[in-house]
């Protein structure tokens, strides 16, 4: 099996090193889940994907690389390699960009951290996916509040800040925003579930950790009319990670 090799070496230096979350075990578990679902994702003919909290741009880039590959060249699901992209285009101007590549979706990578958006574009440029990624500085769905805007999105990816913390634990820096999940690690996760409201039948992956009270997360998703299931888990030092895949019932 081939392995996708994503170049994210730039994340280890300069402003990125101090301000952008470097791909780690949670990132690699997330792309493993995408790999497991690759045939379904291809069958959906995704036109527009949205990654919230894109950080380095690894996941968005990996998704594009994965979908660009011929079916017989899909990589091993245990890969730990990366990719990315960055752009300042307004959302109104990117929704039709996917037409430049007939079978390749357009990805809008959102992050509240401007350094993360620059890192995402750089990753994309290094890995030749820049034509299909736009990085936008935005807090979750703040500019996509209407149902019409959300209905345009075929796939939403979210590897959220999930580490439980108190206000005193977070210094408010750019990098802190990538891990600080607040009370039980649920502040951002709950806000996402309460506002996602997608109408597509596509499966949407969400990463959570054991301390987030996974059963409660699943129940909350169900209360919003979604079917949710755990499709992948991994135990690492100090954490047990889960990928939840949810879609409209």
Automatic annotation (TrEMBL):
The keyword 4Fe-4S does not apply. GO terms for cellular component: eRF1 methyltransferase complex. GO terms for molecular function: nucleic acid binding; protein methyltransferase activity; S-adenosylmethionine-dependent methyltransferase activity. Keywords: Methyltransferase, S-adenosyl-L-methionine, Transferase. Transmembrane segments: none annotated. One of its GO terms (biological process) is methylation. Belongs to the eukaryotic/archaeal PrmC-related family. This is Methyltransferase domain-containing protein. It comes from Babesia divergens.
